[in-house]
Amino acid sequence: MTQYELIGSRGCGSAIVEAALRLSGLDVRLTDIPYLKPGPGRDRLLRLNPLGQVPTLILPGGAVMTESAAMILHLNDAAPHANLAPASGSMQRARFFEMLLRMAAAVYPTFTFGDDPARWTGEGEAARKLRAATDKRREMLWRSIEEQVSEPHVLGDQLTALDLYITVMTHWRPRRAWFDEHCPRLAAVADQAAGHPRVRDVLHRHFSGAGD
C-alpha cells in the first residue's frame, strides 16, 4: 500500500482531514460510508476503529489512525511543505497546539454528547437538557476562540490546519448565521480558507446542497 485511505462521511469531521490531505498533495483514496448505518462499510470501520468514528485514516503500510488532531500532526510531518502547522519552536506553534487541542478536546465533545443526547440519557427531558447544555457550552467556546483569532487566518498570515477546522465547523450548529452575528472574525477566517481552490473543492463535495 503506497497511498493513504481516508474513511469518512459527507459533512462530518473527515472533511477537515480530507482538506489537509489535499493541501499536502499526498496520494489518497477516499472511502465514503454512512458510518452510523449497519452494513459492510460500518463492519469494516469497526474492525479498524472499535469506536466506529470517522475520520479513520489508514497510512501507507497499513497502520491506522483514529483521531483527527493526531492525523493533522502526522500529515504536517509527512508533508511539511503544506504548512499545516507553524514552524517548530515558534510562538505561533505554541498557539497552534493550544487551539488545536481546544477544538479537539473541548469543542468536539459538545457534538459527541449533544448530537444524539438520548444515546447518553435516554429519551425525554434529560436528553433535551443535555442538547441545550452542550449547545450553550459550544457557543461559549467559540466566543473564547473568537477572541484569539488574528486574521486573515486564525494565526495571522499563514493558513494552517486550524483554518480547516473553522471552515468546516462553521457549517455545524450553531450554523453560519450565528457565526456572522456573534463571531465575525471566525466567519471571516472560514471565508478566507474556503477561497483556497483545494479547500473549496472539499467543502463543495461535503456540503453542496446542505443547508447552513
Rg from alpha-carbon coordinates:
17 Å
Task: Report the helical percentage.
Answer: 55-70%
Strand order of the largest sheet: 2-1-3-4
The main sheet comes to: 4 strands, mixed
String of helices and strands: EHEHEEHHHHHHHH
- Whole-number count of domains: 2
Quickly name the level 1 CATH class of the largest domain: Mainly Alpha
CATH architectural category of the largest domain: Up-down Bundle
> How many individual β-strands?
4
CATH topology of the largest domain: Glutathione S-transferase Yfyf (Class Pi), Chain A, domain 2
Distance between the termini: 38 Å
The structure class reads: alpha+beta
- Indicate the low-confidence ranges by residue numbers: none
Strand-residue proportion: 5-15%
Roughly what is the average pLDDT, rounded to an integer?
95
Alpha plus pi helix count = 10
Shape: globular
InterPro entries: Glutathione-S-Trfase_C_sf, Glutathione_S-Trfase_N, Thioredoxin-like_sf
Keywords: Transferase
Organism: Bordetella bronchialis
GO molecular function, one term: transferase activity
Q: Any overview of this molecule?
A:
This protein has 212 residues and is α+β, with helices and mostly antiparallel strands. The chain is 56% helix and 7% strand. It has helices at residues 14-24, 40-48, 68-78, 91-114, 118-121, 125-146, 161-169, 176-182, 184-194, 197-207, and strands spanning 4-8, 28-32, 56-58, 64-65. A four-stranded mixed beta sheet has the order 2-1-3-4. It is globular, with a radius of gyration of 17 Å. The N and C termini lie far apart (38 Å). Keywords: Transferase. GO terms for molecular function: transferase activity. Residues 1-83 form the GST N-terminal domain. This is Glutathione S-transferase.
